[in-house]
Amino acid sequence: MFVYLSKKIAIPNNTKINCLSWEKNNGFIAIGGDEGMLKVLKLEQASTTTSTQTASKGLAAASNLSMNQTLEGHKGNVVVVVWNEQQQKLTTSDDNGVIIVWTMYKGSFFEEMTNDRKKSTVKGMAWTNDGQKICIVYEDGAVIVGSVDGNRIWGKEIKNTQLSGIQWSPDNRLLLFALKNGEVHLYDNQGIFVSKINIQCVQLSSIRGTSVVGLNWFNGYAQGNRPTLAICYETGKIQLMKNEYDDYPIIIDANLQITCSQWNDSGTILAVCGIKNSLNEKDSNQVMFFSAYGQHLRTLKIPGREITSLSWEGKPNCRISLAVDSFIYFANIRLDYTWCYFNHTIAFLEIASQNPSIDFNQSSVIFWDTKSNQNFSKIIDFVISMSSYGEHCVIASETHKIISKDANLVVENSKEQTYMLQICNSLGTTVDSKYIDIKPQFITMNSTHIIVANNSQFLLWQYHTPKSSLHGMKQKKDKRYHVDDQPSGVNEVLSDLDRISYDPPTKVIPTTTKDPICSITASDKILLVARESGTIQEYVLPNVAICNRHSLPNKICKMAINCNSTRACVVDATGVMTTIELNNQTYNDKPSENIRTGKIERKDVWSICWAKDNPQLLAVMEKTRMYIFKNDDPEEPISSCGYICNFEDLEITAVLLDEIINGMASTNMSGEQYLLNLRVKSLRDTEELLQHVGLTEAKQFIEDNSHPRLWRLLGESALKKLDLNMAENAFVRCTNYQGISFIKKLRSIQNEQIQKAEVSAFFGDFDEAEKLYIDADRRDLAISLRTTLCDWFRVIQLYRMSSGISDQQMETAYKEIGKHFANMRVWDSAREYYEKAHYIEGLMDAYYYLEKYEELEGLIAKIPEKSPLLSKLGQMLATVGLTEKSVEAYKKCGDIKSAVATCVSLRQWGLAVELAQKYKMPSINALLNNHASQLLEEGKLPEAVELQKKAGRFLDASRLLIKLAEREIEKKSSYLRIKQLFVLAGLLVEEHLHTSATVTGTNRATVIAQLSPEDSVFIEDVWHKAEAYHYILLSQRQLKAGLMHSAVLSSIRLRDYEDVLNVEKIYSLIALASCADRSFGTCSKAFIKLEGLETITEHKRQEYEELAVNILSRYDPIDTKMDQTPCFACETLVADWQTSCTNCGSHFPACIASGQSIMNPQVAWQCSSCMHLAKRIEIASRKSCPLCHSLVNLQRTEM
Q1: 1188 touches 1195 (CB < 8 A)
Q2: What is the value of pTM for the model shown?
Q3: Which residues contact 494 (CB under 8 A, 6 or more apart)?
Q4: Contact call for residues 627 and 637 (beta carbons, < 8 A)
Q5: Whole-Å CA distances, 641 to 300, 317, 511, 620
Q6: Contact 453, 441 (CB under 8 A)
């Protein structure tokens, strides 16, 4: 940071100032002094709205007193002034103990209330953060806590104690009391003692105490758990603590007799003022600035006898007010922000208090594109430093150790802290990264390497970006050096030349040095490393060979190298800037110890920047003035307070970082508002000469101050005046090939007015160029210009103003306008112009995105056959599920293969097979098989069945259903579920037979006879299994309904299905039904069968035997219920349970409704779907087939 005095205000009558306070929100400054002097001032900057005052924004703008009010009421010396910023009130006290509260009314302050306790003097007052309560402490130990409306909340007398200060904790729960003997006590907000603060910076004793003069507790957001409590003693000792219980505070010895201290508005800098103890110092009044971690940043010397108080301005923390004798001094502060500029983008570290949602160990980096005014945020672990080059920047951050949430999982972390380097583009996207183990306190970047350094070492990393010339090449090892080493570069050269990788001998690099590094900078050729002693070591890159040393009297803070690496500019800790000469082309055996300083030496410098395109141009910021040096001669200064971003093409870009980083800028930041574009004097003079004098004089001036930018200006001015010779000469001098080619074109044009039009078009003034073309009666050139610019709206206007324009030209213009609206996704307007242009392809897109599918289908008829647009239209229609129209488009295009593929993708298998058969595509079967196999592999058996069914492959679908039924059998699903699957398979078989009979013109029996033996067996087997599960369900249903004899007949029928059902279950059911029907003969036979089964266990066989004995020992094994019916073939009486005639062998089919044998099938009812029989008396009351559940038709069926 850099600090300098900027303004001085004298108090009338030389009245000594005892205290002051700067209100943060509105900028009021309260000043208290001797003899009751109390003033309120307000310092405002002059308005800078005009373009001529653009550079004078921020601190560079003139500041004036907008308020100077004297408040009367105190008689004694005013010793304490405190602002209540939330309530906009001022509380003051004098040495007589009088306290006055002042309030704001109509732009002025008036006395609101007074408290006069004459017993003792007020030593301190403090408001809570919300402005609702105030704590007042008196020297005699009295404490009063009152509300904002003047009511006392509580009071306390701390006996035998003299108080000297008071401070609230940030959460308003605790009170800190400073005692006159140097102790600091902690109380709660009700006045109850809690503890003593552990003071380590001074030795406290009861005999001789040390007074506390500063008790500062920052009440904002502290990122990274940094110290927030500062306790300052008059002896110069300072103790910084993270909280009230911090046992390891940071101790500082300021070597000052401290009188006052205060944190800045962000809590990152502690300002301490006092008097230097040494009497030999000329300027005994000093203000010292320390970071929150105790690092000394800067010292400011103030003239005068005694400095008594200081106070920071609110945001943007750029000014501080100082009370010295009867004067108020204002000092401007230029902070060292973490930021960089690259590719028209400013990357900066957001202040943590502006984004409390970020974790305290993380940082938010904002990337502000100054051209588009877009912001991109990137959350990174705690950022340490950043730098930039070209189109990228590097961000160095501290990484955190990985902590596992699982107690059983152990994560190995390195004992050493690791750090991360990220290469980012202007959008904040990381393009390359690296982990390192040295803290990147200092960082710089060139086109190929990133150099980071800590106090004693520096490391070179060769990075890669997408546009890097090294992209794709083998990455070299990182190079690490100690600052005390003297590398010659030999190892690096050997490593580059040796095809076999040369590994130099490893050695242990020390981690400490007596002369630490304090700054680094680099170009593509040179690396400069500055040390705290003032020595600058010069290395040659990329081989890192030390070639020179430079010595300066003070510690270096900033360095920069010019564009050709011949000179460097350095700024020391006192703000003195010096230039030094570099010998980047010299390789000496021993480093040169000669001191070779440049001719430029300036004071109070805080920002420097070399021009990127001229090694002689240097921009320097001194206080609020910018100086531009050419060689060693400065130009007239420019009033500015911006941080220099870039110096190129005789133009300097600066940014008002204070307003942006501290949150004073609006959300939509404007480059015009916060960016300063400053031109060098030669550029300004050239523009003045070209505007008011003439080309010849300007050319003479440019020859004396040659620069490509100036020659380009001359060429453009000469071109506008049609001085082609001078313009050509100027463009040659600035190597503007485009301009030279344009002049060659102009020479071929004879008409001067057309030449002027071409020049206007060349400089982008297209309206003027069009006007000149029309005036020259060359409307065709005007149309050509607008066509080149794709300004089709204007082209149509010009067409309508002209004659002889063809319909094709108008349609072309309409088509381009339609494309314009299509690119903007305004499809209604695009459709309108596409229709005017009769542009079918555009209309397809418009209708598609407007979801006008009927109009989209109508385009099929408008497109000629074999047109490629039909294929695109087919794809569009397919994406919205319009299969038939998509197939129609493909068929008209002649692409039958795509039509079939569309049907397959949309699962329209019937249409796919129909197309394949119609156009004789044998590949459809393979396609179906592949798709079915894929579904089977994925376990989608029902989908595969549906596929085969829709494709008309009923037998294949039936086979898949059989597999599905077998799976259900394995899972022991219900009989009903299994029966349904077998019946569905059977119905698919019947559908296949019916389809085949329809195609061949025969009947079902003929089709069955013509089937292959394998298919015939399969068809029979399908219905066989369906019947098995049907009859077992039927018999169980009859048994449950109490139809015992019918259950016996149905269960006996199950003997034909022992190959399908479990044999034990079949005969168990027969035994149960026959026993219930008292048909013990059948029951005995069933038990005999069960006892003879080989698949049951011996224990179960014994159980069957015992059960049979128990039943048959009581009843004779005889069937008492037996009906006999004559055979339909031979008239022999046959028992109702028999399935065939014992005489002629005729088979009796079963009734699917009752399970009984049908003795005369000729008069039975037959289902038209499953072709099974049932007795008409059984089916008369049913509406559907008992087996397949199709509708019942009661017409007689002949067998």
Answers
A1: no
A2: 0.70
A3: 502, 504
A4: yes
A5: 19, 14, 39, 11
A6: yes
